[in-house]
Amino acid sequence: MGEKGFKKKISRRSFLEIIAGLGVTGLAGTAFRGLNGLPEAIAKTNRRGTKYYGYAGSVVPVAPDNPSIVHFDKFCKHGECGVCSTVCHEKQGVFGYWDPRVASEVVCVNCGQCTAYCPGKRGIPAMQERDETEKAFAFLENNEYHVVVQTAPAVRVAIGEEFGLPPGEWEEGQLVAALRRLGFDAVFDTNFAADLTIMEEATEFVKRVVYAEKPLPMFTSCCPGWVKFAEYFYPELLSHLSSCKSPQQMLGAVAKTYYAKERGIDPSKIISIAVMPCTAKKFEAQRPEMKAAAEYWHNEEITADVDLVLTVRELARMLKAKNIDLLALPEEDYDPILGEDTGAARIFGVTGGVMEAAVRTAYYFLTGEDPPDTLLEFTPVRGLDDVKEASLNINGATINIAVVNGLANVRNVCEIVMDNPNKWHFIEVMACRGGCISGGGQPRTEVPPTDEIRLARIESLYTSDELSQIRLSYLNEEVRALYEKFLGEPNGELAEELLHTHYVDRGPVA
């Protein structure tokens, strides 16, 4: 394991080609949009000698066509603040690590941490998610469409904060009821797709370990902010990312294929909406690679697997606009076919949760036995530490794993892997501190967000896992039915077509 099957590959576009294709006037009109003058550039040098530049105290540039984030100049303090640039640089490792004179686009990984930290003016942040509530209402009011919705694990432990509840309150049943009151035709659980992701991801990891089909270490790929970060800064490592799509995109693909077949619905009439704690999910949904249903049906009328992504804040605004009191609603269950989950899926919203869920299933795949209790409360990967490490012994083989959250910390881990690819076999990455529970689309309960709030949300998800009757992804009956009736087997031909993807080298220099 480790070195076997590893091949270091550096594939970057020519520096001269980028310069030739870069219009100076176009760059000036986008990369520095919204800045009140440019303070003195701060030069930095990375391990490979490439210089990157940032501007102290400035506003993080946001491109006009950014699908995730909008900058409202009238609420910005400009040089008096600098919070967004500090967060983007120090916590996310993005701003200040790119030379805007070379980049052909405004560099953003869409994580939205700037929207979580921005103090703005009079309580209104200058950095906000791109609001798509009107689009959602338009879909819901159009009887031509069958509109389905999915909710991520971290949503149910944060939505209550928008209605006055303390952080971490469990509001799953009321959330489902509220979505039905908005008019959704079916309410699905992203947790179903989290279990599906584990089936695919654990299978892929086992193949890498046993057959060395692809290089180790393998990185998780459910976090779109991390994926785009890797595409920009570490394209050499893209072969190490799991090819699995995120749960959001897996559910979108099966909703317009398997669900459409089971329910006898024209897939071109299905509108798939996702409620996420994450602004990067908006970017992910519109990636050109995310059109598996259109390819499956050979139908160009199907424009995307997931048509629209709403943050928790956007959903709260929709509910309030329709006078729907979340707290007064009865608890209701998710719809069947794509609605069953396990405890393993619920902890996907927490840093370390994806790794813990994957290890439970990988253990079963490698041994044929259910994992021991020590893997059901796998404490070495829990908590808010920047980087967590652990070793497992499965069938006499030692598997070294790492969990990292916060992209500035991810940068450090990537540098280690570049120097020593044999250190770890499996690495979980989440762009935001604490994981999805602290995503850029979560309620701004405290500004800046605090670890107290993060830990309250985390505890709620772990408690729900502990109380679950089923805590292993491979025991999800609806996922099993999906394979038996439709997909065939994990990593099989149809699963690869619908549930896996590829990545794009966005690196700018030779």
**Major sheet: order of its strands?**
6-5-8-9
Q: Taking all residues together, what is the mean pLDDT?
A: 88
Structural class: alpha/beta
Unreliable runs? 1-56
Return the string of H and E elements. Answer: HHEEEHHEHEHEHEHHEHHEHHHEEHEHHH
End-to-end Cα distance: 31 Å
What is the makeup of the main sheet?
A: 4 strands, parallel
Q: Report the helical percentage.
A: 25-40%
The dominant shape is globular
Query: How many strands in all?
Result: 12
Radius of gyration: 22 Å
Q: DSSP helix count?
A: 18
Short description:
Helix content is 36%, strand content 12%. By secondary structure, it is α/β, with parallel strands linked by helices.
Present the secondary structure layout:
Elements: H1 15-20, H2 24-30, E1 41-45, E2 51-55, E3 69-71, H3 83-91, H4 113-117, E4 127-129, H5 133-141, E5 146-151, H6 172-182, E6 186-189, H7 190-211, E7 218-219, H8 224-233, H9 247-263, E8 270-276, H10 280-285, H11 292-297, E9 308-311, H12 312-321, H13 343-346, H14 353-367, E10 387-394, E11 397-405, H15 407-419, E12 426-430, H16 451-467, H17 477-487, H18 493-499
Parallel strand pairs: 5-6, 5-8, 7-12, 8-9, 11-12
Antiparallel strand pairs: 1-2, 3-4, 10-11
Could you describe the 3D structure shown?
By secondary structure, this protein is an alpha/beta fold. The chain is built from 18 helices and twelve strands. The chain has helices at residues 15-20, 24-30, 83-91, 113-117, 133-141, 172-182, 190-211, 224-233, 247-263, 280-285, 292-297, 312-321, 343-346, 353-367, 407-419, 451-467, 477-487, 493-499; strands at 41-45, 51-55, 69-71, 127-129, 146-151, 186-189, 218-219, 270-276, 308-311, 387-394, 397-405, 426-430. It has a four-stranded parallel beta sheet, sandwiched between helices. A four-stranded mixed beta sheet has the order 7-12-11-10, sandwiched between helices. The protein has a two-stranded antiparallel ribbon with strand order 1-2. The longest helix has 22 residues, at 190-211. It is globular. The two termini are 31 Å apart.
